[in-house]
Amino acid sequence: MGATAAGGQPTREQVHDYWALLKPRVMTLVVFSGIAGLIVAPGSLHPVLAAVAILCIAVSAGAAGAINMWYDRDIDAVMARTKRRPIPTGRVHPSEALAFGIVLTIFSVMLMGLAVNWTAAALLALATLFYVFVYTMWLKRRTPQNIVIGGAAGAFPPMIGWAAVTGTVDPGSIVLFALIFMWTPPHFWALSLYRCDDYAKVGVPMLPVVAGKAATKRQMLLYTLLLLPLAPLPAVMGLTGWVYGLAAVILGLLFVHHALRVLRAPDAGNADHGPAKQMFKFSLTYLFGLFALMMLDKAPGLAVLAGLGG
């Protein structure tokens, strides 16, 4: 446990440790996709309420991360990627992390409901509950389909952002949900390919551990191919313009290219680690790029260009 400053005030190290519990890197993508849902949704939301909605999405995502670290503290202490987290190193007590996550979850859901609307609040609660109970506690250590099914938790933010504006769940928001849902398996399987030994050591049945690297690579390619027609769908539905649609196709082809490089890399030793790492990094660029382009394509200037082009 970190020392407390004189007067009972938390030290900078303690603040940093609690911030780390929120998984800020994951939170960044969650917030970004939530903002995209707000912007792409038909209608408008007062800027103050929009800021509150994004705050709630961020806090709820961080709270789920804290509860996840509490539950996974045993395997986090063994895996090289996670052993320096606040709980395994003893800087934060497990019970404090759990309480922190629960309080933040309740706060974010109640604030979303009272300030914005209860549809968005219900989706926010569902996302957290799904991540904690379905993915973390049920699927992660039991099935190689953990990422496939559990990926739904990370796909909720744009749907929540959409619901904050409209108060409804519409086909457009379902497409945004499906985009992240289909992106999640190749993204995490790329990571698990070069962290395969870590997952095997703690008994987490990631697909490369259970089915082997070759089968995992084929599944990764399949999902990138399925994303090819899915990613431009917002443009087909009229949610965005042609600028986004064209860029989505290009990014999709690049994603397939990375999947093919991973597929062709030899399985012997660590020869496939380089392409897998590159695909993992590109997968983040891919998703950030898609949602950034959605938002840019809704900008007045690009909307005018799209209209002239039509």
Low-confidence stretches: 301-310
**Relative helix content:** over 70%
Number of separate strands: 0
Helical element count? 16
Shape: flat
What is the domain tally?
2
**CATH fold-level topology of the largest domain:** Tetracycline Repressor, domain 2
Overview of the structural elements:
- This protein has 310 residues and is mostly helical.
- The chain folds into 2 domains: 12-169, UbiA prenyltransferase (Tetracycline Repressor, domain 2); 170-302, Four Helix Bundle (Hemerythrin (Met), subunit A) (Up-down Bundle), CATH 1.20.120.
- The chain is built from 16 helices and no strands.
- It has helices at 12-21, 24-40, 47-71, 73-76, 94-115, 118-139, 146-150, 152-166, 171-194, 196-202, 207-210, 213-230, 233-236, 242-264, 273-297, 300-309.
- The longest helix is centred in the N-terminal third of the chain and has 25 residues, at 47-71.
